[in-house]
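Risk register update: the risk that structure generation would not scale has been downgraded. Supporting records follow, first protein first.
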Amino acid sequence: MKRTSLAALLVALFGLVAPPAHAGPEHWTAQDMREAIPMEQLVRAPAFTPKDVEKGLPMSIPNGGGAWTGSGKITQTAGRVFFTMQGRKASCSGDAVTSTNGSVVVTAGHCVKYQGAFHTDWVFVPGYNNGNAPYGQWAAKTTLTTPQWQASEDMNYDVGIGVVNQLNGQRLTDVVGAQGIAFNQARNQSMYTFGYPAAAPYDGTKLIYCSGSTITDFLLTKDHGMSCNMTGGSSGGPWFLNFNEATGTGIQASVNSFGYVFLPNYMFGPYFGTDAQNLYNKAQTT
């Protein structure tokens, strides 16, 4: 299978193909944000049903999906990402991480670029809550992705970054704080993942999380996998190692990327290796 066809095969929760482009909003109103379509519903993939794909998957973990009712830094660093894709107002998730420029938001590659074009009107809303932007809307100065995603949308490298402008003279992480980030970490560890799923049974109004043991995808990628029922709109949300529930802090080592249509309630995220590290290093000095 060619890598160029892999993205079309794997992206989770397929839906409507977008219509021709038109100008997007200059500012995302509460209604705009509530009505934004989960990114995954703007792409479509062919059916694919290999046999015995669930064999060997661990299915019992502490939390397979639920609202985050705690506090801590995660309620400020995690947020929704809004953008215009082919004329449609769409959404993903993202997370503010520590960086030299204090302006780096990590998300999925398909949340910055899809089918050869970068999205426009890209903003990050940390701490999003049911149409409210308690820490403001942070517009991207530039969006970046890995060379592999940019060239062929290889799902193994589905990592994107938004470098946001200052807001009211302040840098993003000076306002909301930042999570740590790490690369080339050991696989198959316990992790936490967060996002703003906006497709049923979720509605995008609140922060959702999953936690538990992870596996390495044995099908078409080398991604991390976790039992998790998050839906469209959660793409780009952070995966953490060593997450502390009391402080809401951890070390980010992946992002929500895709789910196989034939394997419900399981989510996958790319391994943060050297290419993701090079992307981060470029972004934090931009």
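Supporting record for the second protein:
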Amino acid sequence: MPGPSHPSLSRPIVIAHRGASGERPEHTLASYDLAIDEGADFIEPDLVLTRDNVFVARHENDITGTTDVADHPEFAGRKTTKTIDGEQHTGWFTEDFTLAELKTLRAKERLPQLRPVNATYDGKFAVPTLAEIIALAKRRSRETGRTIGIYPETKHPTYFASIGLPMERHLVAELHAAGWDSADAPVFIQSFEVDNLKLLHSLTKIRLIQLMDGRGGPADKAVASYADMATPAGLTAVAAYAWGIGPNKDMVEKDGTASRLVADAHAAGLRVHVWTFRAENFFLPADLRAGDDPKAHGDVAAAMRRQLALGIDGFFTDFPLIGVQARDTYVTAR
């Protein structure tokens, strides 16, 4: 691996991205449960709100592609077009449904062309609430004898605030009610926005993670760009309100070339949890692919080990079993 190696600040954690989403439809209790069976340290729910102000787990508030809502004639009139974070979307949205209505829907695979086996589970699982995910994590912690954490992401917080559904105090209240109100709690709260995290920082001691991408900037425009955020000065500013950063993995290493992001973040006192490792050839660099079929699985474990060698403190993956094995092999070999 070209570039400087840098030791992680703590034992790297494996975060099940939307559960074991490479093997079950994402953001379902079945996906989270399988991730726990496979050894994940944390399960990740993306959080959006219903019309009656209940947190549910969906990748987006637009549920057109992840539920069977289009097959429900009683909801045909709910289809609409909205502008969210500057982008226009046409479909059905969680904030236009009560929880009871959402519970009549069933999840479906978001990437059926790449994950046809997952699509065989379409129609089997409901949309889970945050409360149900917390209960699952606590129950499975008791059963397994290891602590299963949750890693919620606030999705589009500025947008939700603009329609009268602010997230921050509501989320903190639900987590505190679960007994999670300290920096030692098995919880990280993540966001691509900045002011959202700064408000959370004033409300809770739960650890916060500033997400960032290789291009663009936060929807709340609190900083000019993620590129500015990833500079040493930008990371110092992030450290004033966040415990760590969650960069796109390509910001750490791409095509064999490593950046200084991990070292710079560690120098600012920030942990680094990168996203997202997926096993399909479609998502892998050319040297790690197995054949030409985009849905075939290549050597994602090697991609994980490359970045573990650069000192990341954790990573998101759709395939937590592979992630746990890669992490454990790396840690044992050190």
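The longest strand covers residues 271-277. On this basis the risk owner (M.S.) recommends closing the item.
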